[in-house]
Amino acid sequence: xxxxxxxxxxxxxxxxxxxxxxxxxxxxxxxxxxxxxxxxxxxxxxxxxxxxxxxxxxxxxxxxxxxxxxxxxxxxxxxxxxxxxxxxxxxxxxxxxxxxxxxxxxxxxxxxxxxxxxxxxxxxxxxxxxxxxxxxxxxxxxxxxxxxxxxxxxxxxxxxxxxxxxx
Length: 167
Fold this sequence. Notes:
Organism: Anolis carolinensis (Green anole)
Number of strands: 5
Shape: elongated
CATH class: Mainly Alpha
Strand content: 5-15%
GO cellular component, one term: perinuclear region of cytoplasm
CATH architecture: Up-down Bundle
Helix content: 55-70%
Radius of gyration: 19 Å
Mean pLDDT: 84
Subcellular location: Apical cell membrane; Cytoplasm, Perinuclear region; Golgi apparatus membrane; Membrane raft
Protein name: Epithelial membrane protein 2
Keywords: Cell membrane, Cytoplasm, Golgi apparatus, Membrane, Nucleus, Signal, Transmembrane, Transmembrane helix
Distance between the termini: 7 Å
């Protein structure tokens, strides 16, 4: 049982780390000398512009930012709730609250990545600064990590739902 508990803790910490990296790092869309994420756009690594209301489809960007931050917060809260439930629950009870928080985190990251997938062309089109064209490029590793974090938080939520506190 101790090995299973250690595996679940490592899995949860990995999920949180993936969410932090996907939320913070500048690699949601990568092109020639261009790195863009949900916070700013960088051209040639030195010329960075924060995304603000002057960019097209800024409301979608705000929704992505909010849901990614919320998913990271929910994942961290779920970890602390799990630690508390580990010592407070009676033997044989399930970690339902922790599971619920992980599923909510999973839902938030899925919403953020889905909005970005759907609205990517509108977000990058019509760059009014004239610094770079974003038609050419590909999804970066932060975007991929967001989808991996979605799978990890979903599996973690299932594990917490099934897990019972045993001796």
